[in-house]
């Protein structure tokens, strides 16, 4: 991870500088400044427009009682695009503007969503929540061996027969 960050913060600025020097040598300083500022101006307008659209969509989903997962991920991707736009350079501006295109952002959102779901599922399997020695509620299951079919509810006192009282319901006796 540290190597990736090191490469990101050293190679990307070097590439940006090389591109700017190449643009300046192939043209004049006006074109170089235009290449730096015009994508930023267009990007700020796109961030504003897409951010408002994302906000409206999230509010509509919340009003319908739905979790706004897609608009939240869209908002995070728009935030990443905004940070890339603030970073000076041609490559970062291009990455940001591509990230602000809705179909591209939608495909990236699907990839990120699948990746996060896989990581969460793997973490749950490794965690105590889905471990065979600990139940989903975080309480270890109580052994019923020797109590002739008695079931237990953590925190409930046993009745006069020594069996734990189980409330009727979907998990209790019918």
Describe this structure as you would to a colleague.
By secondary structure, this protein is mainly alpha-helical. The chain has one domain. It is 65% helix and 0% strand. It is built from five helices and no strands. The chain has helices at 2-26, 29-63, 69-86, 90-99, 102-126. The longest helix has 35 residues, at 29-63.
Task: Give the gist of this structure.
The protein is 65% helix and 0% strand. With 174 residues, the protein is an all-alpha fold.
Defining traits:
single chain; flat
Mean pLDDT: 79
- Assembly type: single chain
Q: What is the count of β-strands?
A: 0
What gross morphology would you assign?
Answer: flat
Approximate strand percentage:
under 5%
Question: How many separate structural domains?
Answer: 1
Helix-and-strand structural type: mainly alpha
Radius of gyration: 28 Å
| Count of alpha/pi helices | 5
- What gap, in angstroms, lies between the N and C termini? 54 Å
Order of helices and strands: HHHHH
Low-confidence stretches: none
């Amino acid at each position: 991870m540290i190597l990736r960050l090191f490469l990101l913060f050293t190679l990307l600025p070097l590439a940006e500088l090389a591109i700017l020097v190449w643009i300046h040598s192939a043209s004049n300083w006006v074109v170089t400044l235009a290449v730096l500022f015009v994508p930023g101006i267009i990007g700020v307008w796109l961030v504003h427009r897409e951010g408002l659209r994302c906000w409206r969509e999230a509010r509509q989903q919340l009003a319908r009682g739905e979790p706004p997962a897609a608009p939240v991920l869209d908002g995070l991707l728009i935030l990443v695009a905004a940070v890339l736009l603030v970073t000076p350079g041609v490559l970062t501006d291009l990455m940001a503007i591509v990230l602000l295109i809705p179909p591209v952002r939608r495909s990236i959102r699907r990839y990120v969503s699948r990746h996060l779901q896989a990581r969460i599922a793997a973490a749950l399997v490794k965690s105590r929540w889905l471990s065979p020695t600990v139940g989903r509620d975080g309480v270890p299951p109580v052994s019923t061996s020797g109590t002739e079919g008695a079931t237990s509810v953590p925190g409930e006192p046993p009745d006069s027969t020594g069996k734990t009282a189980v409330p009727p319901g979907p998990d209790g006796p019918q």
